[in-house]
Design brief:
Blueprint (H helix, E strand, L loop, with lengths): L4 H4 L14 H33 L7 H28 L9 H19 L4 H29 L5 H25 L3 H15 L1 H6 L15 H6 L9 H22 L1 H8 L5 H30 L3 H20 L3 H28 L7 H29 L3 H18 L8
Helix pairs in contact: 2-3, 2-4, 2-5, 2-6, 2-7, 3-5, 3-15, 4-5, 4-7, 5-15, 6-7, 6-12, 6-14, 10-13, 10-15, 10-16, 11-12, 12-14, 13-14, 13-16
């Protein structure tokens, strides 16, 4: 037993929650989560690709390479930012609680960064703007996800994870829609920035975040702070396997999404690729919404997580392989629908699975931030893997076959997690 345990055992912010979270709380937190994803995916789906196409001529880079470079740089920032801000929120003793100050600062900073990105005049300012967006929005996202194990009992986390997943896909669809219909790159960024800033307000204004007393915060040490980010797979094997499976399935998904605009334009010769991305995103969103909450609630009721994650991963791998074998517009629509079914179940149940393997209440934000690296790292790995495959090693057919194999490996390795049913 450590010296801090007698103090923290009775602290509300660190106690294992037992009372069910209310629907209003879950809705407000989900709306805040969706607003963050609008800020991410309006640029990722449409706006960054449009800027790369504008800036690439005369630089010696193709639009694919430029987009890969910019998104990869932003993902590197995300790798550091998410666990860093999660750890800082764990130690925050503000009157408004541990998480709320970071949600406010992150959303406001993200909105301003999106407006700066709208004024980018070349690849360097574009990359700098996107890195700022990743830095600030990851501060908000780390705090939002950490609020779930803070306030939601274990047997409700599948359902709440489902609502957060539904908000995530609505944020992806909403960001894509705003970027598409706003009337230009600058207007698209402005619309996404406004929604990001406004969407977090119901949660931060209405709901109380438990405060961490100063006596419960461990003494500060740079060495202890830095070394705390290493979670030994030997000491915490379930956490290690859970991280790896999430990384592989998210890498597979990132490989599918990265060049979707270019795939429709250059491979399928779709007349309006921007509109095509919006249609596919909407189809994917409808089927995801049909399963994301249902999968989480079902998992809560039966008290099991792994079978849901395994079979949803297998289904996504099959759909990804279909993109390689059936390269037509109808094939893309069917694949998007099936991917949505699988990713809906995966999103809610895998989130609950992650919260079930967290080691300590005092480090929830930091540990979830480390886990969330499995969301960000694929954004670095995907461009590095996808660009040479598309350019030199067989094109989109090989790219989607590779993505299918990676996703299938992630699904199979879920069976290595022993401490959760």
């Amino acid at each position: 037993m450590t010296a801090a345990e007698p103090v923290t055992s009775s602290v509300e912010a660190l106690a294992e929650p037992v009372e069910r979270a209310g629907r209003g709380w879950a809705f407000a937190l989900s709306l805040a989560n969706g607003a963050i994803w609008v800020g991410w995916y309006g640029p990722l789906q449409i706006l960054l690709a449009s800027q790369a196409e504008e800036f690439a001529p005369g630089t010696g880079m193709s639009k694919e390479t430029m987009l890969a470079w910019v998104t990869g740089a932003g993902a590197v920032v995300s790798l550091v930012a998410n666990p860093l801000f999660g750890a800082l929120s764990d130690r925050t003793t503000a009157r408004r609680g541990r998480r709320t100050p970071w949600i406010v600062a992150g959303a406001a900073g993200g909105a301003l960064s999106l407006l700066l990105l709208a004024g980018a005049g070349g690849v360097w300012t574009m990359a700098a703007g996107w890195c700022l967006v990743q830095l600030t929005l990851n501060a908000a996202f780390a705090a939002v996800t950490a609020a779930v194990p803070d306030r939601v009992p274990r047997r409700q986390r599948g359902a709440v994870g489902g609502w957060l997943g539904a908000a995530q896909i609505l944020g992806v669809v909403g960001g894509t829609g705003l970027a598409t219909v706003a009337g230009g790159v600058g207007a698209g960024y402005a619309a996404c920035a406004l929604f990001t800033a406004v969407g977090v307000l119901p949660y931060v204004l209405r709901y109380r975040d438990p405060r961490l007393p100063r006596a419960a915060r461990p003494p500060w040490s740079w060495r202890a702070f830095v070394t705390s980010f290493w979670l030994s797979p030997r000491r915490h094997p379930d956490l290690g396997w859970a991280w790896l499976t999430r990384f592989l399935i998210n890498l597979s998904n990132a490989l599918v999404l990265l060049y979707l605009l270019y795939y429709l334009r250059d491979r399928l010769r779709y007349d309006d690729p921007g509109q095509g991305v919006l249609i596919l995103t909407a189809v994917n969103g409808v089927t995801l919404l049909a399963t994301v909450v249902v999968g989480g609630v079902w998992s809560d009721r039966v008290g099991r997580r792994k079978p849901f994650v395994i079979w949803s991963g297998v289904l996504m791998a099959v759909a990804t392989a279909a993109l390689a074998a059936w390269q037509t517009w109808p094939g893309a629509v069917v694949a998007a629908a099936v991917l949505g079914v699988g990713f809906g179940v995966f999103t809610s149940v895998d989130f609950a699975l992650m919260t079930d393997v967290l080691p300590k209440a005092l480090d929830r934000g930091k540990d979830l931030g480390v886990i969330n690296v499995a969301n960000a790292l694929p954004q670095v790995a995907a461009p590095a893997l996808a660009a040479p495959i598309v350019t030199y090693l067989g094109g989109y057919r090989v790219l989607y076959l590779v993505a299918a194999v990676i996703g299938l490996a992630g699904a199979v390795l879920v069976g290595r997690i022993r401490g959760v049913d």
